[in-house]
Specification:
Number of strands: 0
Order of helices and strands: HHHHHHHHHHHHHH
Strand content: under 5%
Helix content: over 70%
Shape: globular
Number of domains: 3
Structural class: mainly alpha
């Protein structure tokens, strides 16, 4: 059912959908049901290393055998900003097909690494408790902080270079740096985020954003729908018309709007709209099953 939501998303809303690959790659967790915590972590690190190497090989492949670029009669940016829903959908599906080729080398390996590591974390938490898990993550984060932050800043600097000043060697470096340093940076953010959110001083912030966390599927697809109406031709047509800083505040405003929506929604319901649909579709004849899915 999650894969079905993903297909709907990539066809009608957003070509860089994550739900379909999450559903497919998540099947790996069935294989890892009986693997130990240590074994799962070894698998996670191995998948991460494969993503780094795969990203580099993808860059080498593009450099050695570049794909011929055919200039379209109408620039893609113009189609996205002014085209009909059908026009934008055609561009979306073409972009999705190309994006999958890159994801096979890196993104999907990183997703698999995150999933098996998350399963290891859950097993560790069951055995030693949540406090022990947070303490372990803080220890790992202490070693990951410098390479994660410094490497990500370097990646950001290289990726932000204007096209005229970004020769192929810089492009190759960004392909290697992104998966290499994204993982340690994520560990740092998760570890210290857990510490901060459990502190008394952050209790009001946690209470404010918690409803949004209970309807993450609804918000993920809802953001795709809302952003499509803002940027594509069948909506406001702002594609390629706003600065990067404008995209940031638009995203923040929309997310705050979803938090408010979630707080209002949960006054009358126990689950988010799409979360409720997913629960009903996966456990149509079992009330207990619906409750467990929601939990």
């Amino acid at each position: 059912m999650l894969a079905l939501f993903g297909v709907v998303n990539l066809v009608f809303l957003f070509e860089a959908d994550i739900l379909l690959p999450y559903a497919v790659i998540g099947l790996l967790l069935l294989i890892g049901r009986k693997i130990s915590v240590r074994g799962l972590m070894v698998c996670g690190v191995a998948l991460w290393a494969m993503a780094v190497v795969g990203n580099a090989l993808f860059g080498v492949s593009l450099t050695v055998n570049p794909s011929p670029y055919v200039v379209p009669e109408i620039p893609v940016s113009v189609v996205l900003a002014t085209g009909s829903f059908a026009d934008v959908m055609a561009v979306r599906l073409e972009s999705w097909a190309g994006f999958q080729l890159y994801c096979l080398w890196s993104n999907y390996l990183l997703v698999a690494a995150a999933m098996v590591s998350g399963l290891a974390a859950a097993r560790f938490c069951e055995e030693y408790g949540f406090d022990a898990l947070v303490a372990k993550l803080r220890t790992i984060a202490a070693f990951a902080a410098f390479p994660g932050i410094a490497g990500s800043l370097l990646y950001g600097a290289l990726a932000s270079l204007p096209a005229a000043f970004e020769p192929e060697r810089f492009f190759m470096m960004t392909l290697v740096l992104r998966p290499l340093f994204a993982v340690p940076l994520s560990i740092v953010l998760v570890a210290y985020g857990l510490v901060a959110f459990r502190a008394t001083v952050c209790s009001n912030l946690v209470a404010f954003i918690a409803p949004a966390g209970r309807m993450s599927l609804t918000i993920y697809l809802g953001m795709s729908l809302a952003m499509g109406l803002v940027f594509f031709g069948y909506g406001a047509g702002m594609h390629n018309q706003v600065r990067l800083a404008d995209c940031l505040w638009i995203s923040v405003v929309m997310y705050l709007g979803w938090i408010v929506f979630a707080k209002l929604w949960f006054r009358f319901a126990s689950r988010g709209p799409l979360e409720l649909i997913l629960a009903v579709l996966t456990r149509p004849n079992s009330r207990q099953g619906v409750v467990s899915v929601s939990s």
